[in-house]
Amino acid sequence: MPTFVYMTRCDGCGHCVDICPSDIMHIDETYRRAYNIEPNMCWECYSCVKACPQHAIDVRGYADFAPLGHSVRVDRDEQKGTIAWRIKFRDGTEKNFLSPITTKPWGTAIPKLAEVPAPSNEQRDSQLLYNEPKWIRMDDGALRTLKDAGLKLKKGVYY
Amino acid sequence: MGTKTIVEEGIDVLVVGAGLGGTGAAWEARFWGQKKKIVIAEKANIDRSGAVAQGLYAINCYMGTRWGENNPEDHVQYARIDLMGLVREDLLFDMARHVDSTVHQFEEWGLPIMKDPKTGRYLREGRWQIMIHGESYKPIVAEAAKKSADKVFNRICVTHLLMDESKPNRVAGAVGFNVRTGNYHVFKSKAVICGAGGASNIFKPRSTGEGAGRTWYAPWSSASAYGLMINAGAKMTQMENRIVLARFKDGYGPVGAYFLHLKTYTQNALGEEYESKWFPALQKMVGKEYLDPEVSHLTHRPIPTCLRNHCIIQEVAAGRGPIHMVTMHAFQDPHLEEVGWENFLGMTVGQAVLWAATDVDPKNENPELTTSEPYVMGSHATCSGAWCSGPEDVSPPEYFWGYNRMTTIEGLFGAGDAVGGTPHAFSSGSFTEGRLAAKAACKYIDDGKAEGIVVSAAQIERRRKEIYKPLEHYRIYRNAVVAGSVNPHYINPQQGLDRLQKLMDEYCGGYTVGYMTNEKLLNICLKKLKIMEEDLESVAAKDLHELLRAWELKHRHRAAECVTQHTLFRKETRWPGYYYRGDVMKVDDENWHVLTVSRRDPETGEYTMEKAPCYHLVADTEVTEPKAEARVEHH
Ligand SMILES: Cc1cc2nc3c(=O)[nH]c(=O)nc-3n(C[C@H](O)[C@H](O)[C@H](O)COP(=O)(O)OP(=O)(O)OC[C@H]3O[C@@H](n4cnc5c(N)ncnc54)[C@H](O)[C@@H]3O)c2cc1C
Ligand code: SF4
Ligand code: SF4
């Protein structure tokens, strides 16, 4: 049913409800636990699976082409900056993978643009964006224009 | 109805939909509008919303100008040949000359970009793609947007744009409802940047039942960017240019990294190379300008994505399917095997789930490929979207009306899938377009163009009634029957979606008809869509979740109608492999080397179609040679 929730692990915290881009993780009113209300609108994006603090959400491949007996589990660790995957095939084969998810501690590396010096009028009138041209080449290279490139626009010409 | 009305006034820049385009817009707007009020209205939660919700394993648009790899004009040439000659080269050039600064910023923000240990440069998988560990791509750009915006409204489904009543054809904000509380939200804004994404699920998906959600583009890509802009009367372009993708069967796992980095290749059921067999006949259909395998071989000029699809479609129709991706050689190398799997875990987990479930290990078995149902979007190897102004230093008069990325509605800007004519922007290009739109929107406001906007209480009230009508309709009629979902007075959103997909599939060239259509079929399609529009007045929503689905359906329906109008107008098969006009199979450069532009009159619902000139960048010498380290393109 693409995602499903293990009854004994879920505590109804609602993190999955908050994150699902498809609005399909809902809290069941009787059990006070989460479930997927619309499996045919689930992308298996794993956003809810990664967000669940209880590891209560799992995925079973789509019934119309995926046989039972497999699993793909994930553990995303923001502190360590890693994501770990465990793939279990139907025949029992296992594969494990570990990747980085960031190179900087969360929330530290992105500046607040309200605090940087305001752009000059010259910048406003130019074609440049924030931190350009410096950031295009990370040196003093200027922004590319048609003239630099010896180009012009010509109507309906073939090549 | 017990819903509150919440009015957010005095907004300068409203960002509708914060995917890659919207987050770029919100981020950059703060720099050019340091004192401006910047607000985001997003249907989901920006931390994981949009097409990049589960991550990406590559950034598909990076020039590498600092290493002398490519210049912007090289990218324009590449995108133009891939789209069979028809793109907005001004917009493409503009995106390409800024995109590297976006990518360098991403690296600074902590996005892990892979490096080539020998050269120290970003590790490329093809001429334009660089490889990343991109699971957290969306949370990272969301953080940038949150740092810039005054307020982020998550879970607001925007249903309509507000129009100014003091000046015709000027935007004045947007309205929508909160999917959790049901509250009615009114955003009065001087400028609006629409980044509400492309369209999946307009055509019948290849999967059925539970599996219907396993589409290539996210099922929540509900064509809202198009629905909102078309309904407001914005001109659209290239809407006939829907995309069909060759992907791993059932899981829709992307093939780019496999072809480009892992050096895999395809073969038919007999183990033969099949693609080149179809080239002679195809060349007769499209002309030598667009398919010349010898030149491609010599100059590394790519073979257009749609033409590669055509070969798969023909080979399967000839009875020599399935097409297999030969992975068994590459996967013997443990490093490449790891790349192959992580590629999916970082962006299409469903493919890994499927292989685990079916015991397909690409090390021991070559997996099947297939062609997808069509999608409508503006940032992949396709370019549907709004007709937008280009930058002043590049664009010719027909493409320029003052503010970069502004649509034909004053104050309404586009980014990402919303913008027409800019294929191969992908994630980094969409973010860059958001940045460009934001700078222009701030200038538009500073120039005093948004002064004196008037939004009457009547307009706000009219939209409120319209938005909640499906809930009301359900309440009134549900007791006419004992129980169940079969009711003579209404259809529910899923039933409506089934109908839309069936008719678009059968009449507008979906996969069950081999992507084939013609004038007669398209006219029937329009007639059925019109009747469906009447029925959409009777769509019923039993709760707020269904109300969300009802509005997604209405946006999809409007986009589908526009696609059909465009397909009818362009009397040629410009992109064989994406769709075929059976009655006009040949590419007809004499009459159709043009961009198509439509406008739907918001009052009457009538479409006006026109041809717009296609401008090309003309170099004194051709610059098709790839630069250092660049390789042949292959999707
Ligand atoms: C499986 C897959 C693989 C891809 N691979 C790559 C790759 O390797 N490299 C690459 O560079 N690109 C890749 N792309 C393409 C890339 O994801 C898109 O080009 C890009 O995300 C488009 O950006 P966008 O802002 O236009 O749309 P999106 O990022 O989809 O954002 C649209 C936003 O609008 C919101 N929204 C929609 N409707 C409404 C509404 N009514 N009201 C309010 N908000 C709304 C959505 O929730 C979403 O947040 C891939 C895409 C997919 C699906
Ligand atoms: S996040 Fe996990 S624990 Fe919390 S409601 Fe969802 S399934 Fe239950
Ligand atoms: S996998 Fe994605 S779409 Fe499916 S329920 Fe979880 S968050 Fe929603």
Which secondary structure elements does this structure contain, and how are they paired or packed?
The complex is a heterodimer of chains A (159) and B (635).
Chain A: E1 3-5, H1 15-19, E2 25-27, E3 34-36, H2 47-51, E4 57-59, E5 71-77, E6 82-88, E7 94-100, H3 121-125, H4 134-137, E8 151-155
Antiparallel strand pairs in A: 1-4, 2-3, 5-6, 6-7
Chain B: E1 5-16, H1 20-32, E2 38-41, E3 56-59, H2 72-82, H3 89-108, E4 130-134, H4 137-148, E5 151-153, E6 156-163, E7 171-178, E8 184-194, H5 224-232, E9 236-237, E10 246-248, H6 256-260, E11 265-267, H7 279-286, H8 293-299, H9 305-320, E12 323-326, H10 334-345, H11 349-357, E13 368-371, E14 385-386, E15 412-414, H12 426-446, H13 457-477, H14 493-508, E16 516-517, H15 519-536, H16 544-569, E17 580-581, H17 589-592, E18 594-600, E19 607-613, E20 615-619
Parallel strand pairs in B: 1-2, 1-8, 2-5, 8-15, 16-17
Antiparallel strand pairs in B: 3-4, 6-7, 7-8, 9-14, 9-18, 10-13, 11-12, 12-13, 18-19
Helix pairs in contact in B: 1-4, 1-12, 2-3, 3-12, 5-16, 13-16, 14-15, 14-16, 15-16
Flavin-adenine dinucleotide binds next to helix 1, strand 3, strand 6 and helix 12 of chain B.
Q: What does this protein structure show overall?
A:
- The complex is a heterodimer of chains A (159) and B (635).
- Helices cover 12% and strands 24% of the residues of chain A.
- In chain A, the strands form 3 sheets. A 3-stranded antiparallel beta sheet of chain A has the order 5-6-7.
- Chain A contains 4 helices and 8 strands.
- In chain A, a hairpin with a 5-residue loop joins strand 6 and strand 7 (94-100).
- In chain B, strands 1, 2, 5, 6, 7, 8 and 15 form a 7-stranded mixed beta sheet that branches.
- The longest helix of chain B has 26 residues, at 544-569.
- By secondary structure, chain B is an alpha/beta fold.
- In chain B, strand 1, helix 1 and strand 2 (38-41) form a beta-alpha-beta unit.
- Chain B is globular, with a radius of gyration of 23 Å.
- Chains A and B meet through strand 5, strand 6, strand 7, helix 4 and strand 8 of A and helix 1, helix 2, helix 3, helix 4 and helix 10 of B.
- Strand 8 of chain A pairs antiparallel with strand 20 of chain B, so a sheet runs across the interface.
- Bound molecules: flavin-adenine dinucleotide and iron/sulfur cluster (2 copies).
